Amino acid sequence: MLDSRSQRVLWAVVESYIDSPDPVGSRYVTKKYEFGLSPATIRNIMADLEDLGFLTQPHTSAGRVPTDMGYRFYVENILAPPEENMARMSEQMTNRLLTAGGDVDDILQEATRLISSFSHYLGVASLPRTENSTLHKIEMMNYKDDRIVVMLFTNEGTIKHKIIPNELSLEQRDLGRISSYLSERFTGKNIKEIRSSLVREMKEQKSEFDALIERTLAIFGEGSDNAGDDVLITGFKEVVNLPDFSDIDKIKILSEAIEDKHTIVKLLDKIVDNDGVQVIIGSENRIEGLSNMSMVATTYRESNRPVGVLGIIGPTRMNYQNAIVLVDAAARCLDRMLGGNSS
Q1: Model pTM?
Q2: Is 225 a residue whose pLDDT tops 70?
Q3: Which domains, ranges and CATH numbers included, belong to the chain?
Q4: Of 39, 210, 260, 282, which alpha carbon lies 20 to 30 A from 188's?
């Protein structure tokens, strides 16, 4: 643990660097913050913080900037609780999201747009996971001769559709019979449990299934599988205007990471099973193209079940306190609107 003086100096360096992406010098800290310490003392403390891995010096003549380790310590030990801003931000979010309508996708789209607009970072959200929902009914339709549109209707009011190959050239009447069979058998059951049950049955009784029944069960598995790209991303124009992206190569790397939505999904998947707001800083995410970015995110709930993730992605030099307040307020709002009963 750092002593109180070291913590105050680390806080000053992080806060100063968040305000302006220039290396922070001891004289600057002395003038801006009333610590009652001389520039020489501040300089020695900053040197100690560098030796411990909390700060780094880009050039020998420059000041210092926080490392990922420094940001982590700042977030976990120094950052002030954001409660004073929570009620005001929550009210603003609620008022804006109420205009988005009742459709879950529309509400999430507006939520990501709002947190991006307020933070000037990327707003991201994963759409409700099909596997956590309860099946109401399933419908199938032929599409362009060699494909099938599978539509899942859940008791939570969401609709998922997926286009899959029609490998057996099934006609519409066959698809109608399959839909009725699956709906009658599985209505009211959790989709994740249904898929597990089908996999188990197909392994245990594969020899007893004819081709049509086997394809029926496979269709449900394919149709209920998460597509992997059910993620919303807004605010690219916001984030590339930050001084952190003055280098065109950095913009290109970020753009490629966003276009490959599976990259973002990997990050969001780290959050979905955790409670509370999570902060992933820089190299902690270990995902190519995003090693210089941080994410602040949390789950949102539908009928008291975690169904997706909402968050902000920005440079490691992000305003973590503001990001935490925004994400938490937006998620609480979504919980209330989707029946999660969050306080």
Answers
A1: 0.75
A2: no
A3: 4-78 (1.10.10.10), 83-129+228-337 (3.30.450.40), 131-224 (3.30.390.60)
A4: 210
